[in-house]
Specification:
The longest helix has 16 residues. The protein is 26% helix and 27% strand. The chain has a 7-stranded mixed β-sheet, with helices on both faces. The protein has a single domain, classed as Aminopeptidase. The protein is α+β, with helices and mostly antiparallel strands.
């Protein structure tokens, strides 16, 4: 299956309940702890509003009105400096392994550059192996310690890329 049936577009208000459900489903699939991860984020149900701010954007993957995943770019929380965070990048199984992850990453990083960010940070988990492969392919390097404070204390792998 090619990714031609899927469309990457900016989030709209009506997508909120759908993307929240998708992200929670994926986190459950991976057995992610419900505390200290995106699962517990209050903003999960209001992602549209969360990215309605300067130098922030969230994209969703859509096909025939259904949402299959998403990813966003935003200033890294509690961090002084021109660093953004690649946030909430999750894809349902149907959208994996067909090049959509690379495409989404490309779009997000391009937007981060347009916003004027110098570096992009992300946090992940050890068992999200295919995600980590994708991040490395895109030029992300492993860090020894976290940057900023995202509140995701259960995410114990940190990566950074120069833009």
């Amino acid at each position: 299956m090619t990714h031609s049936n899927f469309r990457i577009r900016e989030i709209q208000l009506k997508d909120n309940p759908k993307i929240a459900k998708v992200i929670r489903e994926i986190l459950i699939e991976f057995g992610v702890p419900k505390v200290g991860t995106a699962y517990a984020d209050k903003i999960l149900d209001t992602l549209y509003e969360a990215y309605e701010t300067e130098k922030a954007i969230y994209y969703v993957i859509e096909k025939e009105g259904e949402i299959y995943g998403g990813a966003g770019i935003k200033q890294l929380d509690n961090f002084e400096g021109n660093v953004c965070e690649l946030q909430k990048m999750y894809f349902l199984p149907e959208t994996r392994g067909i090049g959509l992850g690379s495409k989404m990453m490309e779009i997000c990083l391009q937007k981060a550059k347009e916003f004027g960010f110098e570096q992009c940070y992300l946090e992940t988990l050890p068992y999200m192996e295919s995600a980590r492969k994708l991040y490395r392919k895109a030029g992300f390097k492993d860090l020894e310690a976290p940057m900023g404070d995202t509140g995701h204390y259960s995410c114990n792998l940190w990566m950074l890329k120069k833009l």
